[in-house]
Every structure is written in C-alpha cells, then in structure tokens.
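To make the argument concrete, we let one protein speak, a sequence paired with a row of structure tokens, as a model reads it:
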Amino acid sequence: MHRTMADKGIKVAPRGSVFEIEPAETWGRMFAVVAANGFYETSRQDTKAALEKVLRLCALKEDVKSVTVTALGTGYGNMEIEDFVEIFCGLRVPASIETFELLIHGDIFFKAACRKNEELGYPATVSA
C-alpha cells in the first residue's frame, strides 16, 4: 500500500480509502482498505462505503468471481465485530461475484460474528 500511495503522491490516506494492490506474480487481485484513522477510530459509514467500492471494482473485473474480506476496523480500530458483521451482511453483492466471504481470525471474534449473523437471520455458510 505504501508503494502505491507513494506512486500517487499520497502521504496520508484518509479513513475509507481503497487502493488496488497487484504485486508481481499475484494469484489474484488485492485491495488495501484504510479502516481506521491515526487515532484508531473507525466509522460504520466509511467502512461500508469502502466495502461497496471494493465490490464495484471487483465487479468490473471479468476474472473476479470470489471476494474475501477481513473484519475491517475490528483489530486496529474501535469497531466491534458485531457492527462489522451487520455491515457485511447488509451489502448488496454484484451478480458477477459468485462468492463473498468474511475471513475471521480468532475463536472469540468468530463466535460473536456467528451469533450476530444468526440474530440478523442471514444464512451464513461456515467453513473451516
């Protein structure tokens, strides 16, 4: 992300920024999303807008059929996993995207995300 920012002359990326990163010999497309500001503050609005932008960008790429995201702003940020799950589950996924996955690290976050998903009534598929 720092190389991409430097190439564009950007020194500080605002919260909600999205950068497409394509390392040499990449196995897929990669986006870096700035989820928190310098004070580790997140925003539901900025996080949702950034995810919507990533989905729009992926929909423009004919070769992208699967998108996986992490729970933005829940590590280096003040967003609770339940808030992120609500945003994630409420996104409209473009028809060209066949699989939209949330990758969660850690048993506590995973269990909390599953509870919130069930509370919202979304049919998540859980895989190990």
